[in-house]
Design a protein that fits this description.
16 helices; about 30% helix; about 550 residues; alpha/beta
Length: about 550
């Protein structure tokens, strides 16, 4: 039932910024049936290839908004990443194409940002309640206990209007005008090391490196990688005394790229010097305004997690907004920053540490690093740690809207990311698990119908959940046609997960994090706990 106060608003949610994070948030809100207005100062999708890479979690998020297939069609997925050290000799490699973190996708994908933004914006047309104002910018912002009010100016004509919404999401980038209007400071710093980013078109036979490479040579650290549509991306660190103007000259670019691609056959599309930061906003929420993506946090680029962190923000926040606006749930927004900030800081910290490896300036230290990594490759456990990318902080929620409010340990199921293997449907199709779970909460039972175990009618008063039965492979158990959704765990990954946690029922949140698990006897109590946590009388976190 819609809150009567929402009728006094032009829309449920205003999103400022239609970059990838804002567009994903708008797709999520539209999927949940909310009215959404996106305000973007530019008149077209960004034409420059700035962001370049994403990981398996990003693809799972794109899957949730129904756009993973058209987006993947425009991506390149490398099989291997090389690390080149002193004298450009390889000292380590990661076979990323062989890694499986349980999300359903491999962990590294390169995209062309103009294609990505165009596809995300086209996805908004599926949602009748979503509107986009291009060529407009927010010039003023006010809020009270019930709504947010913004002054919006059309940049071409200067015409202004005032719009009102129940909430506003600031997805407007590192220099976020929304954050500045709120008076929220960034805590952190910008790094002094400038980098030259070069993007251009090159045919396959013009490329001179066999794989995506992090160049850790102290003479000139850099990165080279092949993206979609013939796009070839290179980045080079500037040395002391080198100016942006000198580095952006065509003759300088030709000299820098020559070891990696034939400069005569490279059509440069973009060459710009930039600096990066490591900063987090003091607060991500002020009343009814919330900050996402670069507006809330920035980090060094060495783990390629800047964009993905913003996508995680949208996946965490939008279903909470939908529950509150559609059903009058508790103030779930209090859990947004609580859940997301620790992971953002952990990812920024590992990015800094990777930068220390990446940016060894001393030739002596660089050769020592190279020798250590070659030695580590002979030690099986250390080799698994490096080649398995185990140093990357996994997705997890330590405190927030999970059973008990706090994760008991690093191996506890609550707060973990639910695995997504392929399962076989009764019709014989093999699909990724999220296709069965649906857009909301999912109550998943192993070899059982979870409905009678959790008192489905009572739970339905708090949340619109989907009930899913997963059958262990080879059990011979027939699928009950009355169960809403069912699938067979052909790989055994889900069966092993349930047994490892001694559980028969799992409550999975819309963003695919586990609220909690229980055996058959404890399932009803777990469901009652969830219903209480979502009740307007209870504010979790």
């Amino acid at each position: 039932m819609r809150d009567p106060r929402s009728e006094q608003c032009d829309t449920d949610v205003i999103i400022v910024g239609c970059g990838p994070v804002g567009a994903v948030a708008a797709n999520f809100l539209g999927m949940h049936g909310l009215r959404c207005l996106v305000i973007e100062r530019e008149t077209a999708a960004h034409g420059q290839p700035r962001a370049f890479s994403c990981d398996d979690e990003a693809l799972r998020i794109y899957q949730q908004i129904g756009l993973v297939e058209p987006l993947r069609a425009d991506m390149v997925t490398p099989d291997r990443v090389d690390y080149l050290g002193a004298d450009s000799r390889k000292f380590a490699e990661i076979a990323v194409g062989e890694l499986d973190f349980g999300t359903g996708y491999t962990p590294l994908h390169f995209f062309y940002q103009p294609h990505l933004e165009r596809t995300l914006r086209q996805g908004l047309a599926r949602h009748a309640g979503t509107r986009v104002l291009l060529g407009h910018e927010v010039t003023g912002l006010r809020q009270d206990a019930a709504r947010v009010e913004v002054d919006v100016c059309e940049r071409a004509s200067g015409a202004t209007q005032t719009l009102r919404a129940r909430y506003l999401l600031g997805c407007d980038g590192a220099h976020s005008p929304v954050r500045q209007m709120l008076g929220v400071a960034l805590v952190g710093r910008r790094y002094d090391e400038p980098w030259l980013a070069v993007s251009g078109l090159a045919p396959e036979d013009a490329i001179r490196v066999p794989a995506t490479s992090f160049v850790c040579d102290p003479r000139r650290p850099g990165f080279v990688g092949k993206g979609p549509a013939g796009d070839f991306r290179m980045e080079f660190m500037l040395r002391p005394g080198e100016s942006a103007a000198a580095m952006e000259r065509p003759e300088t670019i030709a000299r820098l790229v020559a070891p990696y691609v034939d400069p005569e056959r490279l059509e440069v599309r973009r060459a710009v010097v930039y600096r990066f930061g490591n900063a987090v906003a003091e607060r991500w929420r002020v009343g009814r305004v919330l900050l996402l993506g670069d507006a809330a946090h920035q980090m060094p680029p060495f783990m390629g997690q800047g964009l993905v962190s913003g996508l995680r923000d949208a996946a965490n926040l939008c279903w909470k907004l939908a529950l509150m606006l559609r059903g009058g749930a508790a103030d779930l927004l209090s859990t947004y920053e609580t859940e997301r900030r620790p992971h953002v800081r952990a990812m920024a910290d590992i990015s800094v540490r990777m930068g220390h490896v990446f940016l060894a300036h001393s030739p002596t230290l660089a050769r020592l690093r190279d020798g250590l990594f070659r030695l580590f490759d002979r030690i099986p456990r250390v080799r698994r740690f490096i080649r398995g990318f185990e140093f990357k902080p996994g997705p997890a929620i330590a405190r927030g809207l999970i059973s008990g409010g706090r994760r008991r340990s690093g191996r506890a199921p609550e707060g973990s990311y639910f695995p997504q293997p392929r399962v076989r449907t009764p019709a014989g199709y093999r699909v990724l698990l999220d296709e069965l779970l649906g857009p909301g909460f999912a109550i998943v039972g192993l070899d059982c119908d979870p409905r009678p175990l959790v008192d489905a009618p009572a739970l339905a008063s708090a949340v619109d959940a989907r009930f899913v039965t997963i059958l262990s492979k080879g059990t011979g158990t027939a699928i009950n046609p009355e169960v809403t959704v069912a699938g067979e765990d052909e790989s055994g990954a889900l069966t092993a997960w349930f047994r490892r946690h001694r559980a028969q029922v799992a409550v999975v949140r819309p963003d695919r994090f586990v609220y909690g698990v229980a055996d058959a006897a404890g399932a009803a109590e777990l469901a009652r706990e969830l219903a209480a946590a979502l009740s307007p009388a209870c504010a979790p976190g």
